[in-house]
Amino acid sequence: xxxxxxxxxxxxxxxxxxxxxxxxxxxxxxxxxxxxxxxxxxxxxxxxxxxxxxxxxxxxxxxxxxxxxxxxxxxxxxxxxxxxxxxxxxxxxxxxxxxxxxxxxxxxxxxxxxxxxxxxxxxxxxxxxxxxxxxxxxxxxxxxxxxxxxxxxxxxxxxxxxxxxxxxxxxxxxxxxxxxxxxxxxxxxxxxxxxxxxxxxxxxxxxxxxxxxxxxxxxxxxxxxxxxxxxxxxxxxxxxxxxxxxxxxxxxxxxxxxxxxxxxxxxxxxxxxxxxxxxxxxxxxxxxxxxxxxxxxxxxxxxxxxxxxxxxxxxxxxxxxxxxxxxxxxxxxxxxxxxxxxxxxxxxxxxxxxxxxxxxxxxxxxxxxxxxxxxxxxx
Length: 379
Prior knowledge:
Blueprint (H helix, E strand, L loop, with lengths): L1 H29 L2 E2 L2 E2 L5 E2 L1 E2 L2 E2 L5 E5 L2 E2 L5 E5 L2 E2 L5 E5 L1 E3 L4 E6 L7 E3 L4 E6 L6 E3 L11 E3 L9 E3 L21 E5 L6 E5 L3 E5 L11 E3 L12 E3 L20 E4 L6 E4 L9 E3 L5 E3 L4 E3 L12 E3 L11 E4 L2 H4 L6 E6 L2 E6 L14 E8 L4 E2 L1
Parallel strand pairs: 1-4, 2-5, 3-6, 5-7, 6-8, 7-9, 8-10, 9-11, 10-12, 11-13, 12-14, 16-17, 21-22, 27-28
Antiparallel strand pairs: 14-15, 15-16, 18-19, 19-20, 23-24, 25-26, 29-30, 30-31, 31-32, 32-33
C-alpha cells in the first residue's frame, strides 16, 4: 500500500515538472528580448534595446525606457521618466509623476512631452498636444480639457488655434437641410444660440441681453471700420416705439437734429424753427430773408424772384387774393396793387395804404379792372 502511494506521488511530481518545463519553453518561445536592461527590482523589459530601470517598471518595444517607479512604456523610442507615468506610442516623454502620453511625437528630437502631473496628453506627429486633460482639484471634482497647445486650461473647455489657423468650433447637424438645427446651450435649456436652416441665427434667453462693453454694428462688415456709435445700423430700423431719455423732455416736444452729424435731441417745436422764420407775439410766422421754392427741389434763380411755385396752386377763401408792392407800401398789410376774387369775378384794385402808405396812402381804387365770371370785362 505504501509502495503504491509513493508511486502515485512520484508520477504527480514528474507530471508537474513536465508541465512546468513545457510552459517555460512555450513562454520563452512567445517572449523575445535582446539588449534589454532591468534593475532586477521587479522590473521587466521585452523587445529590443528597452530599459526598465525603475522599480516595478515595465518597458516594451524598441529603445524605450521606463525610468520612474511603477512606470510603463510601450512603443518606439519613448521615455517614462516620472513615477507611475505611462507612454504609449512613439517619440513620447512622460516627465512628471502620474503623467500619461499617447500618440507620437515628431521625432526623438521633438518629442511629445507631458510636464504635468496627473494629466493626459494626446497628439500625433507633433511636439505639441492636440488634446490635454488636466488633474482634478478634488476627489469630487473633475479636470479641465484643452484643445490645441493648451496645457493649463483656463476653463472647462479651452480651445487655442495654431499660428495662421482660425480659432473656430464647428457644430454641425447630420445634414444641413430644411429645418435642421445646430445650437449651443449655456447654463440651462433656455439660454444659448441656435442656428436653423432657412431661418437664421436665434439667441435664446429667459430674461435679458446685456452688452456691457464695446459697440454693435448691423449691416456692415469688419472692413468698414469701427462702429460710429454704441449701435451703428447701416439700413432701415423698424420699431413700434421710441424712447430717448437722459434729456429734458416735456409733452409736445419733437425730435430734431442739433448738428450736422445727425445728433438728435428732444426740443420745444418753437425752438427748432429756422432762424430765417420769425414768430410774432400773436403767433404769426413770416420769412424775413432768402427765397422760397414750392414743389421743386431747385431754388429760385432769378435775382428778384423770392417765391417759385412749380405746378398749379389754388388760393381760396373769402376775398382770396394776391397783393403786389414795394418796401414802402407792403407794411400796410396789402401792398400797392391787388387781385382778388370778389362778387362773381376777378377784381384788379388799388388797396388803401393807410398811414404807412406815404404818397400812395389815399390812392384807394376798387374795380380798376373787373373780369366777371360770365366773361364780361369792366374798366
